[in-house]
UniProtKB/TrEMBL annotation:
UniProt family annotation: Belongs to the MurCDEF family. MurF subfamily.
Enzyme type, top EC level: ligase
Main location: cytoplasm
Gene3D superfamilies: Mur ligase, C-terminal domain, Mur-like, catalytic domain, MurE/MurF, N-terminal domain
Recorded coiled-coil stretches: none
Domain Mur ligase central, first and last residues per copy: 97-276
Record organism: Poritiphilus flavus
Protein name listed in UniProt: UDP-N-acetylmuramoyl-tripeptide--D-alanyl-D-alanine ligase
Protein encoded by which gene: murF
Function: Involved in cell wall formation. Catalyzes the final step in the synthesis of UDP-N-acetylmuramoyl-pentapeptide, the precursor of murein.
EC number(s) per entry: 6.3.2.10
Highest taxon, organism lineage: Bacteria
Length: 425
């Protein structure tokens, strides 16, 4: 069996990892992972023929002399290699989790720290038991900071990922109504996400916190190694919210920062990036530049101009917490007319009916010209709003009754893929 030390030696020679036989790069190490419908071992020869330097396998039947590295379990080997490499390098690791805003916050922290330090961060949302190891393996000898995003939809997942990344610092964006089915309700979400703070406190590591969030304050009560931001508490780093019209404006040390992020809910995401930058002595002007230059993408609160429409495209994902704040912010906007397209929120289990009904009632109470509800859950709500059981039925309606202009909010869970509305509009 190949030991982690031997595996790491090979990795240093060939520091490129692949887990997809369709995307083999020359001189990479291919990890033959298993999935519900495939066995990566069966692609070992194909990966080598495509140029892989080595293949890590856990089935000796696929041995190729001098080219395969046999381990007990490929996934475990990938995770152990990542943890080994994380300690081999000198980068300080900052871990990040939470119900909403993880990716935006990660990008903001990266934007601030990279103004002074050699920094890497999770690409996209590779934040699970495979993505976290792959991010750790992208740390290079000169990397000074690694920002690791961690996602979860069940208890113990954040604890597991924390034990792989072993972060020096960590932050939880918030505790919201996300993945209620897997976590077992809101209390389960709080418990599951707090596993990051549990790891930090148990290992005497530093915790960043939003000191205006009572749950975070309670979770870190009595813990000494915490660094926080607040709008009011003088014992923490003070940052002032100015306005969101719709872009967030804030003030730090008499310096005004105008972001390109929509909604007051993004204020705390900016704050922790500034807090971390301040803690690591990034100059204020550099931090201001990093925050102001960050533009969201990939359907996360993007502002688009499409034909005669101004569009707030927030269709990457949704849960009751993020849907509520997005709607409330949209309702405050002075644009006219305002039209909302809201897609089903997934993974809510027995809470699905109640949560969709509450969102429908909130949407109906706001000053919106029109609201279109899309998906089976929204279709079952008791409401006078326009509702459609599927995207196709909504699309058919819009083709026969097209919209002429307006400001649109488009938000729904990933599975709804509401960005398809751009084609329909």
């Amino acid at each position: 069996m190949t030991t982690v030390e031997e595996l790491h030696k090979r990795f240093l020679e060939y520091p490129l990892v692949s887990t997809d036989s369709r995307k083999i790069e020359a001189d990479c190490i291919f990890f033959a992972l298993k999935g519900p419908n495939f066995d990566g071992n069966t692609f070992a020869r194909e990966a080598l023929e495509k140029g892989a330097a080595f293949v890590v396998i856990d089935n000796p039947d696929y041995h190729w002399e001098g080219k395969t590295l046999l381990v007990k379990d490929v996934l475990t080997a990938l995770q152990e290699l990542a943890r080994y490499h994380r300690h081999y390098c000198n980068a300080r690791v900052i871990a990040l989790t939470g119900s909403n805003g993880k990716t935006t916050t990660k990008e903001l922290i990266y934007s601030v720290l990279s103004g002074k330090y050699r920094t890497i961060a999770t690409k996209g949302n590779l934040n699970n038991h495979i993505g976290v190891p792959l991010t750790l393996l992208s740390i290079q000898a000169d990397t000074e900071f690694a920002i690791i995003e961690m996602g979860a939809n069940h208890q113990k997942e954040i604890a597991f990922l924390s034990n792989i990344a072993e972060p020096d610092f960590g932050y939880i964006t918030n505790f919201g109504k996300a993945h209620l089915e897997g976590f077992g309700g809101v209390e389960g979400v709080i418990k599951g996400k707090s596993e990051l703070y549990d790891f930090l406190t148990a290992n005497n590591k530093h915790a960043f916190l939003n000191a205006d969030d009572p749950i975070q304050v309670e979770k870190l009560s009595g813990y000494v190694r915490k660094i926080g931001f607040s709008q009011t508490d003088p014992q923490y780093f003070n940052i002032r919210f100015l306005r969101a019209d719709p872009f967030v404006w804030l003030e730090i040390e008499d310096t005004v920062i105008k972001t390109q992020l929509i909604g007051e809910y993004n204020f705390s995401n900016c704050c922790v990036a500034l807090l971390i930058g301040k803690y690591f002595n990034v100059p204020l002007e550099s931090m201001k530049e990093g925050i102001e230059n960050y533009v969201p993408e990939n359907n996360r609160s993007q502002v688009l101009h499409h034909k005669h429409f101004k569009i707030i495209m927030d269709a990457y994902n949704a849960n009751p917490s993020s849907m509520k704040v997005a709607l409330e912010q949209f309702g405050k906007m002075k644009e006219d007319p305002k039209i909302a397209f809201l897609g089903d929120m997934f993974e809510l289990g027995e809470d699905a009916e109640r949560e969709h009904q509450q969102i429908a009632e909130l949407a109906a109470s706001l000053n919106l010209e029109e609201v279109f509800l899309v998906g089976e859950n929204f279709y079952r709500t008791q409401t006078e709003l326009q509702k459609f059981p599927s995207f196709d039925s909504l699309s058919s309606h819009l083709k026969t009754s097209p919209l002429s202009s307006g400001t649109l909010l488009i938000k729904g869970s990933r599975g709804m893929a509401l960005e398809r509305l751009l084609e329909v509009l």
